[in-house]
C-alpha cells in the first residue's frame, strides 16, 4: 500500500532544503540521497528564501539551535509557505531549555507546518504539557508503553488535534496522525535509539516523501516512517549476520545501505500498520 510513495519519491527526486543541526547534518544529506531525494543544506539568512523557493520541501531542525539561526528558520519557512512547499519541523530537545521550547513553539504557531516529526517528550513540551525533556531523547516516562495501542493512538490523535498539524511521533512504536486518522507503525529496532541521528534522518526523509506526494500527506508520512522502521530492522539482521555483535558504528552504515536499497515492493511487503479512526 505504501510502496507507491517511495516509488514516487525515487521518480521525482525532489530537492529538500534542510536547515538542520551540525551533529547529524551529513547523515541527513546521505539519508535523503539514499531514498531518492536531493539534499541542500543552507542556513545563511541571506540565501534561505532563494533556496527554499527552489525546493520541493523544507526541513527545519532545531538540534543545535543558535539565536542567529532564527532568521534562517523564518526566512525559509515563510518563503516555503508562501509557495505551498511543505515544511517539516523537528523540535529537537524542546523542553530541555527555554530557547528550544520557545523557538519550536514560535515556528509551530507562525508557520502552517505540513508535519512535526519528533518524540513524545518533545511534542508534549511544544504543546506546553508534560515535564521537561532531559535532552534530545524521549523521557523514560514517555517511553513507558503501559496503555494499549488503541489508547496510545487516541492520545497521539488528540495531540495532533491540539497541534492542528500532522504529527509523526516515534519511539518503540511510531504514530502518524492528522487528528482524524492515526497510523500505529511497528518496526525498527532498539539499537536505532543508540545511534544519534535516526530521528533527524527520519525527519528529513519525511520532508522528501511529503514533497513527492503532497496530496496524500498522511500516507506519505506513514510511508517515510515505515521505510525507516523496516530499514532499521533489516540493518539489525544484517549486522548480526555480518559481525555477530551489536556495534553501533557498523549499524549506522548498514542502516544507510538499507535505505539506499529499499524498493517500493519491499516496503509494501514489510509494513506493520494498524489504522485507528477518531472515535469521539
Ligand atoms: N525502542 C525502539 N524500537 C524500535 N525502533 C525504535 C526504538 N526507538 C527508536 N526507534 C526508531 O528510531 C527512529 C528514531 O526515533 P526516535 O529515537 O524516537 O527519534 P528521536 O531520535 O528524534 O528521539 C524511528 O524510526 C523509531 O521508530
Ligand atoms: C545529540 C544531539 N544534540 C543536539 S542535536 C543532536 C542530534 C539528535 O538527533 P536525533 O534526534 O536524531 O537522535
Ligand atoms: Mg530527535
Outline of this structure?
Substrate binds at residues 41, 197. The protein has 280 residues and is an alpha/beta fold.
Give the mean pLDDT. Answer: 96
From the spread of the alpha carbons, the general shape counts as globular
- Domains (count): 1
Class computed from helices, strands and strand pairing: alpha/beta
Q: Work out the helix count.
A: 12
Report the CATH topology name: UDP-N-acetylmuramoyl-L-alanine:D-glutamate ligase
EC number: 2.7.1.50
Function: Catalyzes the phosphorylation of the hydroxyl group of 4-methyl-5-beta-hydroxyethylthiazole (THZ).
InterPro entries: Hyethyz_kinase, Ribokinase-like
Pfam families: HK (PF02110)
Task: Provide tags for this entry.
nine-stranded mixed sheet, UDP-N-acetylmuramoyl-L-alanine:D-glutamate ligase, 15% strand, alpha/beta, globular, binds adenosine-5'-diphosphate, binds magnesium ion, binds 4-methyl-5-hydroxyethylthiazole phosphate, 12 helices, 280 residues
Amino acid at each position: 500500500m505504501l510502496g507507491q510513495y517511495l516509488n514516487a519519491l525515487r521518480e521525482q527526486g525532489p530537492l529538500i532544503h534542510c536547515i538542520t543541526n551540525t551533529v547529524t547534518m551529513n547523515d541527513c544529506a546521505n539519508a535523503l540521497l539514499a531514498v531518492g531525494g536531493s539534499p541542500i543544506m543552507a542556513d545563511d539568512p541571506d540565501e534561505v528564501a532563494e533556496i527554499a523557493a527552489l525546493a520541493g520541501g523544507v526541513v527545519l531542525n532545531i538540534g543545535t539551535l543558535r539565536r542567529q539561526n532564527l532568521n534562517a528558520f523564518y526566512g525559509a519557512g515563510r518563503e516555503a509557505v508562501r509557495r505551498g512547499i511543505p515544511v517539516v519541523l523537528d523540535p529537537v530537545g524542546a523542553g530541555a531549555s527555554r530557547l528550544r521550547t520557545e523557538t519550536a513553539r514560535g515556528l509551530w504557531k507562525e508557520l502552517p507546518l505540513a508535519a512535526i516529526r519528533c518524540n513524545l517528550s518533545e511534542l508534549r513540551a511544544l504543546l506546553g504539557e508534560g515535564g521537561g525533556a532531559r535532552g534530545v531523547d524521549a523521557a523514560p516516562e514517555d517511553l513507558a508503553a503501559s496503555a494499549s495501542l488503541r489508547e496510545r493512538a487516541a492520545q497521539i490523535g488528540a495531540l495532533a488535534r491540539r497541534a492542528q498539524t500532522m504529527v509523526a511521533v516515534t519511539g518503540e512504536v511510531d504514530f502518524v496522525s492528522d487528528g482524524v486518522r492515526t497510523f500505529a507503525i511497528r518496526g525498527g529496532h532498539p539499537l536505532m535509539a543508540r545511534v544519534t541521528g535516526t530521528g533527524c534522518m527520519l525527519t528529513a526523509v519525511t520532508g522528501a516523501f511529503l514533497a513527492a506526494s503532497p496530496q496524500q500527506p498522511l500516507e506519505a508520512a506513514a510511508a517515510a516512517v515505515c521505510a525507516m522502521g523496516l530499514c532499521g530492522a533489516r540493518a539489525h539482521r544484517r549486522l548480526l549476520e555480518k559481525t555477530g555483535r551489536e556495534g553501533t558504528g557498523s549499524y549506522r552504515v548498514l542502516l544507510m545501505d538499507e535505505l539506499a536499497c529499499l524498493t517500493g515492493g519491499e516496503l509494501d511487503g514489510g509494513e506493520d500498520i494498524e489504522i485507528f479512526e477518531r472515535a469521539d
